[in-house]
Write a structure and sequence with these properties.
Helix content of chain B: 55-70%
Strand order of the largest sheet of chain B: 2-3-4-1-5-6-8
GO molecular function, one term (chain A): transition metal ion binding
CATH topology of the domain at 6-207 in chain B: Rossmann fold
Oligomer: heterodimer
CATH architecture of the domain at 6-207 in chain B: 3-Layer(aba) Sandwich
CATH architecture of chain A: Roll
Largest interface: A-B, 41 and 50 residues
Number of strands of chain B: 12
Number of helices of chain A: 2
CATH topology of chain A: SH3 type barrels
Helix content of chain A: 10-25%
InterPro entries (chain A): Fe-transptr_FeoA-like, FeoA, FeoA_core_dom, Transcriptional_repressor_C
Distance between the termini of chain B: 78 Å
Largest sheet of chain A: 6 strands, antiparallel
Order of helices and strands of chain A: EEHEEEHE
Radius of gyration of chain A: 12 Å
CATH superfamily of the domain at 6-207 in chain B: P-loop containing nucleotide triphosphate hydrolases
Strand order of the largest sheet of chain A: 1-6-2-3-4-5
Protein name (chain A): Ferrous iron transport protein A
Structural class of chain A: alpha+beta
CATH superfamily of chain A: Ferrous iron transport protein A (FeoA)
Structural class of chain B: alpha/beta
Shape of chain A: globular
Number of domains of chain A: 1
Radius of gyration of chain B: 28 Å
Strand content of chain A: 25-35%
Keywords (chain A): Iron
Shape of chain B: elongated
Strand content of chain B: 5-15%
Largest sheet of chain B: 7 strands, mixed
Domain Ferrous iron transporter FeoA-like (chain A): 11-91
Number of strands of chain A: 6
CATH class of chain A: Mainly Beta
């Protein structure tokens, strides 16, 4: 399912590897299965700068389950768990 | 005519350098208190503008928006809207931005503008931005935002001159007619729209170099490495605890000999009698035995403040998130738990950064298991009296090893308790999200470190001067009265109230190897743990006469068995915590039941641990 070719199909940031760079396409809070409500998760992601068009890069991963991830979002670095990063659709 | 006090409020995202600007503006003219009803720290400071206007400035908790999703953020929102009880609406809001990272602050500012409060955007850390090749068209930014913009370098002398000048200009021209507040909570689409607007303005006014901060990237390559990062974290913690015990020694010896000679002076100058006994045994040996630990407390806060200001704490949370998740803890709990090594009170207060209620409650319940600095006196005293200072395996100091073991026991039991809580109470739950900004590294500034340590040292000394002092007076009184009848034999203390209380409790504590003197010391130990040491000192001093005052440790070594000493150490790993910790738990959880639960479970653990330790030690022949 996960397409790693150069077609850059849309995928959740939560599945991306370290070193991945891409651009946020849209937010899909419903897909994440987070403990937060959809609206709350989406609001928080926006407040931390995850909006459509922002450039993201995965800089670091944690030890256990490669989780959480440190994501460069334009000029900021944000740590999130992969579960919440599933709501960020990138390409 | 004297102009009225001008009220400023500092608002900004976390890590925007708000606090260093606050320190730069006010220096040591700060007042730290709590907002009524909540334990959010309220920091107010004062300064005078170049034109002589008296200004009060409040450093509000950092926030990314005015939605108010935690008690901290609610304070910020209510304060800016003038809804915080007992607070004046600020005359001027200073929105503080990290110049190297404007996106999130500009969005916040666009939201703040709707409140109609007069505002200045302060581009802080402007020197770092310039050095990194970021240029800001300040005039255009001000025009686009419709808000005056000023640059500042909080950490440099004179770096706030422009801000002060602008404050004067604006306060002179503050409009009499207030602008309507049109703020209301933003929906998702409005949030998105303001972030887009912010990004557009930044694209127009700020030119960013392609490369991010190279130093931060280089350090993070090591510090956030999945394996290397954990090794670095372990090393930092190891150095920290070594330092607290090794480096503090000379200063502690100095303080100790100072109090000893003061005691001798009192003994030499005053005639034998109650006053001499009160000053020497009650005041000097009691309070002195606690103040001796000031160097260690300063050192542990020095480390915590340095790591915080450097920007490492967020990284530690990142590294520990999943590891702590295994025990049912949130990554953000790492910082409160680490602070709890200094004192559980700031630790429990720091749990406010955990926005999920259950995660926060679990962290509050286990925070007192972290070995706080108030336990150091008790541990040090008993270890130095009973554990030989020899090396094992050639290079590890046995005393240090025991100390390390006590810390480890605290941490392991905290993880176990957390695991049990997760297992029984919160079985089927999706872990709360972990979302945290990892700020660029910054060189910690001497001034803010000094101010931070100064406030904490002051709090410690105030406690020594009030709580601990009054407990010592009480202990001295209980241990001295009633006086033995004329012609009585045996130590005077045998006839005192303290002996009566201690002996009444003795049957309860006998199974864990505690004698009545320990029972007497444990009661005031509830007010503040370190008082137990002072209380033991007083009890044995009065019992043994004045020549025994100086070396509590030596006295203990002759009066206690090794099993009793080990049992006492085990007791203090769990030691039912001090009254102030319980009070903070009551306030933070808003519940007497949780406070009671914490007290009860720790008391049970302490008793069980001591019981096992004592009996095993006796069985092994240490009785």
């Amino acid at each position: 399912m996960t397409d790693t070719t150069d077609t850059r199909s849309h995928m959740p940031l939560g599945l991306a590897q370290r070193g991945y760079t891409g651009v946020i396409q849209h937010l899909a809070a419903k897909e994440a299965g987070s403990a937060l409500s959809d609206v709350e998760l989406e609001s928080r992601l926006i407040e931390l700068g995850f909006v459509e068009g922002a450039r993201v890069e995965i800089l670091h991963e944690g030890l256990v389950g490669r989780d959480p991830i440190a994501v460069r979002v334009d000029s900021t670095t944000i740590a999130v768990r992969r579960r919440e990063a599933m709501a960020i659709i990138v390409a | 005519m004297e102009a009225p006090l001008l009220h400023l409020a500092l608002v900004g995202t976390p890590n925007s350098g708000k606090t260093s600007l606050f320190n730069a503006l006010t220096g040591s003219r700060q007042k730290v208190a709590n907002y009524p009803g909540v334990t959010v720290e309220r920091k107010e400071g004062f300064f005078v503008t170049p034109l002589g206007r008296q200004v009060s400035v409040v450093d509000l908790p950092g926030t990314y928006s005015l939605r108010g999703r935690s008690p901290d953020e609610e304070i910020t929102r209510d304060f800016v809207l003038g809804k915080a009880s007992g607070e004046t609406l600020p005359d001027l809001v200073l929105c503080v931005a990290d110049s190297t990272n404007l996106r999130l602050t500009i969005r916040l500012l666009l939201e703040l503008k709707r409140t109609g409060r007069p505002m200045i955007l302060v581009l802080n850390m402007f020197d770092i931005a310039s050095r990194r090749g970021i240029t800001v068209d300040v005039k255009r930014l001000a025009k686009e935002l419709g808000v005056p913009v000023v640059t500042s370098i909080a950490v440099r002398k004179g770096g706030t001159a422009d801000l002060l000048k602008l404050t004067d200009e604006i306060s002179a021209a503050l409009a009499a007619e207030p602008v309507e507040n049109s703020w209301r909570a933003l929906g998702v689409s409005e949030l998105r729209a303001t972030q887009r607007e912010a990004d557009r303005i930044i694209a127009d006014c700020v030119s960013l170099p392609a490369r991010p901060d190279t130093w931060t990237a280089r350090i993070d390559a090591i510090v956030l490495h999945p394996v290397g990062g954990l090794i670095v974290l372990a090393l930092i913690l190891f150095v920290m605890f070594q330092a607290v015990f090794a480096w503090a020694q000379p200063a502690m010896e100095l303080l100790k000999s100072g109090f000893d000679s003061l005691g001798e002076l009192v003994q030499a100058t005053l005639p034998d009698g109650l006053l001499q006994s009160f000053l020497q045994n009650g005041v000097i040996s009691g309070v002195g035995s606690v103040i001796v630990f000031l160097p260690q407390i300063i050192l542990i806060f020095l480390f915590i403040l340095l790591l915080e200001d450097f920007g490492y704490m967020a990284r530690a949370a990142f590294l520990m998130d999943r590891i702590m998740g295994g025990a049912g803890l949130h990554g953000r709990a790492f910082i409160p738990l680490l602070s709890s090594f200094a004192c559980a009170i700031p630790g429990i207060m720091a749990t406010r950064v955990i926005d999920n209620k259950r995660d926060r409650l679990t962290t509050i319940l286990i925070a007192p298991l972290m070995t706080c600095s108030a336990r150091i006196p008790v541990y040090t005293l008993i270890i130095s009296a009973f554990i030989p200072a020899r090396d094992v395996w050639g290079f590890i100091n046995l005393q240090g090893l025991v100390m390390f073991g006590l810390y480890a026991a605290g941490i392991i039991s905290a993880l176990l308790v957390s695991f049990v809580i997760k297992f029984f109470m919160l079985r089927d739950f999706v872990p709360a999200p972990f979302m945290l900004e990892l700020p660029d590294y910054k060189m910690p500034r001497l001034k803010s470190i000094v101010i931070g340590i100064y406030t904490r040292a002051k709090m410690f000394l105030q406690r020594a001067g009030t709580t601990i002092f009054s407990m010592m007076v009480l202990i001295w009184f209980l241990a001295s009265f009633p006086q033995p009848p004329a012609g009585a034999t045996g130590p005077a203390i045998e006839f005192s109230l303290a002996a009566m209380i201690g002996k009444a409790l003795e049957p309860l504590l006998a199974p864990v190897g505690f004698n009545w003197q320990i029972a007497v010391a444990l009661i005031p130990g509830m007010a503040a743990r370190e008082v137990a040491v002072a209380a033991l000192g007083t009890v044995y001093a009065i019992e043994g006469g004045s020549e025994a005052v100086e070396q509590i440790g030596q006295v203990l070594a002759t009066k206690w068995s090794l099993a009793t000493a080990l049992s006492m150490l085990a007791w203090y790993i769990f030691a039912p915590q001090c009254a102030s910790t319980l009070a903070v738990i009551r306030r933070e959880t808003g519940s007497w039941a949780w406070m009671g639960a914490t007290f009860a479970y720790m008391l049970v653990l302490a008793y069980a641990a001591s019981l096992v330790t004592y009996n095993v030690a006796v069985a092994l022949g240490a009785g």
